[in-house]
Every structure is written in structure tokens, then in C-alpha cells.
Design brief:
The C terminus is likely disordered. The protein is 36% helix and 17% strand.
Length: 456
């Protein structure tokens, strides 16, 4: 770095996680340099400059820190934090400046100094909490892509492998697939140089392999005849790879899947409490987005009119119950990619759209994530038909428009029907249905079930 480069840095509007200025007139503690450099590393790399005022307008004030001992300091920093820190000495016209440059963090790695993982908070350094450190590693490490050292090909279920093969062929009919199971899984990166990934275990493990190497990937099912019941009427501990059991899980749920009947004009209609498409999407989400570092298992609790699916770990970074329809951040990319190859999920989506659409089309309550927290994602699917008039209305609207209603259409209509404001993300969709908005603005009386339904 030249003095001219330094002058340009001084014009930076404010300090941030990649840039730190310290005056250090009379010196600076070596351990504190280690703290700052480890924090820069953890936050993506950056620089610590000694000999520059940290208040704007910044100017070079010069420092005597580590004068004549730079080589020793480099070695001591390597011993202290375990990585090489580049140190430059700049003779600026206004004084001596030291620049410590920390490289960007390696994938799946965080750096400690003196027993703590440091991060910037305002103008200070603070130690990360366990939860902050876990989130930092979650952002960079794909657990499903890691190799399970002791696992072998014999830990995988031939039935599940055949299901993977047939689903890939169904999804991509022209795709040439290897006749060898090993090569098939290598091509899908479920095996890497013959070694078994955790994604392979999650999808394909036999019972012995899953219990031995990833026991928390089991799925536990319980059925109760009543919400207040303590004892379950049925319980299954499902300990095989997901592709081997996904149809069995649906069959188990469907075994207890009650049929609801409701009046539609002169006719009676019937609908199952739990829609197969919605349930399968919920299961795929629970398996593909859960945190496998957490020792818990996926729990399915079924009641006559509610299906609860709870998966360990909170939402992935940046995802919440409020934005999951509009943002995606797969926690286990290798696993999501394998499911994408099978046509079971789209890696760009989380399947929540299908669950919401199915619930709206059947007049049920929306899927509910409200009891989720930082440690688990909890989803409730409801089985009762609450709004048969709304079902009749959207069916008529689809027939009149000559096209099926998409999720955004359904969410807009649902909001208006319930007398709720349309979410900002949906306003564009609402504008596209101007004629219906005009109806809403009509001075006609509003039906108790919503402004649209009074016209049925």
C-alpha cells in the first residue's frame, strides 16, 4: 500500500466490519491486534490500521507500535490465532502507519483468539454468543455435503437407490444414467470419490446405516384421536433413508385421514382433511431444511383436524414465517440439489407455495408457522373446511377467467375476503386484477365473509 492508497482509505465515510482505524500513538497491545484480526477474518476479511485517528475527519497521527519488531509480531500472531496476517509499514508524510490485513474466512471455519470468537459491535469488539457462532457456520457450511467418514456403500438401501434412479429418469426422460449404482451416486455427488456424504445417508440409508451414522435423521410419527389426549393411538419410529419411506409416511398419514363433508348449494362435497400434495411438500421441507447438527428428530403429530410437523433448528438465515413464500435459502444445498434432480423439489423454492395454494383452494386455514422459534420450525396444517363459499367463488372466478388462479391471486383474494390489507409483495398482483378491485370499491353492502362473497 502506498501513501496515496492510504489517503484514499482515510476518506472512507465510516468504519465497518472490514476496516478499523486506531491512533495507537504510544503503542498497541499485541493480544488486541489478534482480537481485531480474528474479528476481521470472521466477518469476511479486512484491515486494521494503526497510526490513524478513528474519528472523522481522519488523519495520520503516527504510531510507535511494534517499532523494530514487525517480524516478531507476525510470528506471534501466527501462534496466537493460527493464520498468517500480512503486515505493512507505511511511511506517510504525517507519520508511521501499520496495516494488518486479515484474509477472508474459509468455508465452514471461524477463528478464535484467546478463547473467544470476536465480532464487531458498533465501534467495539464483542465475543460471539453460541447462537451467533452457529449461524456464522451455518452460512458457510453445507452439512449434507460433508463426508461421513465411517459410512460405506453397504449402509445404503438398494430400494432407495432404485427409487432415486427411477425418479431421476421420470424427471429427465432423456438423461443417460449409469447402470452402476456407485457411478449413479457419484454423478449426483451423493458419493465423493467413493465416500458417502450425509446427503446420501439422509436420502438412501438402510435402517442399520441410519441408526449407526445419523440416528437423529429418523422421523417419528404419532397419531392421537383427540387434541387433549396424552397417550398416542399409534406411533412409528421411521429409521430409513427418506426416499425409501416417503410413500410409507404418506400412507400412514392417509390411514387416519378423515373425510369432511360440506354443503355446496344443492350438493354435498367431500374433501380429505389433509391434502396429499401439501403433506408431501411439508415433509420434503422438514427433511431438506432442518439442522442435522441438532440432535433432535423430525416429529409428525397427527390429530383428526390438525397435522403438526416439527423439525430441529430454526429457519435458515434470512428466512422467517413472514417471508418464506418470497425468499429461499436452502440450509443443505447438496441434499436440495439431489431432490431437485429427482423432480421432488425445486432448489429455487421451498414448496411452501403449494401448501398455501392447496389450503386456500380447499377453504382451509392457512399453514401456520407461528410457534416456530430459533430452535425448531413448527408447521401446522389444518383439516377443516372453514370457507366453502370462498372455494365456490375462486372456482367460479377461475372458470370465468379461463385460467387457473396462481398463489398470488389466491392470497390477494384471501386477504380481501377476510377484510385484511393486501401485503406489499402482493399489490402488483392485485393491480393486475383491476376489475375485481373495482368491485371491492363498490358501495354495495359487504358480506360477513368478505366483500367478494356478497356477490355470489
Amino acid at each position: 500500500m502506498t501513501p496515496e492508497d492510504l489517503d484514499r482509505l482515510l476518506s472512507t465515510p465510516s468504519e465497518h466490519e472490514h476496516l478499523e482505524f486506531k491512533a495507537a500513538h504510544g503503542g498497541f497491545n499485541r493480544d488486541k491486534v489478534g482480537d481485531y484480526c480474528s474479528a476481521r477474518y470472521n466477518e469476511g476479511g479486512g484491515r486494521l490500521l494503526l497510526g490513524v485517528s478513528d474519528k472523522a475527519p481522519r488523519r495520520v497521527v503516527g504510531t510507535t507500535a511494534f517499532d523494530g519488531t514487525l517480524q516478531q509480531v507476525k510470528h506471534e500472531l501466527l501462534q496466537l490465532i493460527g493464520i498468517r496476517i500480512d503486515v505493512e509499514e507505511i511511511e506517510h508524510p504525517d507519520g508511521r502507519v501499520l496495516v494488518f490485513t486479515a484474509p477472508p474466512r474459509l468455508r465452514g471455519h471461524a477463528l478464535s483468539c484467546r478463547g473467544r470468537y470476536w465480532m464487531r459491535s458498533g465501534e467495539s469488539l464483542v465475543a460471539m454468543t453460541d447462537e451467533q457462532l452457529r449461524k456464522l457456520l451455518d452460512l458457510t457450511l453445507d452439512f449434507s455435503a460433508e463426508i461421513c467418514g465411517p459410512a460405506e456403500l453397504s449402509d445404503l438401501d438398494p430400494v432407495a437407490i432404485q427409487r432415486f434412479r427411477s425418479e431421476r429418469r421420470r424427471h429427465r426422460p432423456g438423461l443417460q444414467l449409469s447402470e452402476s449404482d456407485r457411478q449413479l451416486l457419484e454423478d449426483a455427488e451423493l458419493l465423493v470419490d467413493g465416500r458417502v456424504t450425509f446427503a446420501a445417508l439422509i436420502l438412501l440409508a438402510n435402517e442399520r446405516g441410519l441408526k449407526r451414522h445419523l440416528g437423529n435423521a429418523e422421523i417419528i410419527f404419532e397419531y392421537r384421536n383427540d387434541e387433549a389426549a396424552i397417550e398416542y393411538a399409534e406411533r412409528r419410529d421411521i429409521t430409513r433413508g427418506f426416499l425409501a419411506v416417503m410413500d410409507d409416511i404418506w400412507a400412514l398419514i392417509n390411514l387416519w385421514n378423515t373425510e369432511h363433508q360440506y354443503q355446496d348449494g344443492l350438493f354435498r362435497r367431500s374433501v380429505r382433511a389433509f391434502n396429499e400434495s401439501a403433506v408431501r411438500e411439508a415433509l420434503l421441507n422438514a427433511v431438506s431444511h432442518r439442522d442435522y447438527r441438532n440432535g433432535g428428530s423430525v416429529f409428525i403429530k397427527q390429530f383428526p383436524d390438525r397435522l403438526s410437523i416439527t423439525s430441529p433448528g430454526g429457519f435458515p438465515e434470512g428466512i422467517s414465517a413472514e417471508n418464506l413464500l418470497y425468499r429461499q435459502s436452502p440450509r443443505n444445498r447438496r441434499l436440495a440439489t439431489a431432490l431437485q434432480h429427482c423432480g421432488l423439489v425445486e432448489r429455487s423454492g421451498q414448496g411452501a407455495d403449494r401448501m398455501f395454494a392447496a389450503s386456500l383452494r380447499e377453504g382451509k386455514l392457512l399453514p401456520d408457522y407461528s410457534t416456530s422459534d430459533a430452535y425448531h420450525v413448527a408447521l401446522d396444517l389444518y383439516g377443516q373446511v372453514r370457507r366453502p363459499a370462498f372455494v365456490r367463488f375462486i372456482e367460479r372466478l377461475a372458470n370465468e377467467s379461463g385460467r387457473p388462479l396462481g398463489l398470488e391471486d389466491l392470497l390477494v383474494l384471501d386477504a380481501v375476503d377476510r377484510g385484511q390489507p393486501v401485503a406489499p409483495a402482493l399489490r402488483e398482483s392485485a393491480a393486475a386484477h383491476g376489475s375485481r378491485s373495482d368491485r371491492e370499491a363498490s358501495p354495495e353492502p359487504v358480506h360477513p365473509r368478505g366483500p367478494f362473497l356478497c356477490r355470489l
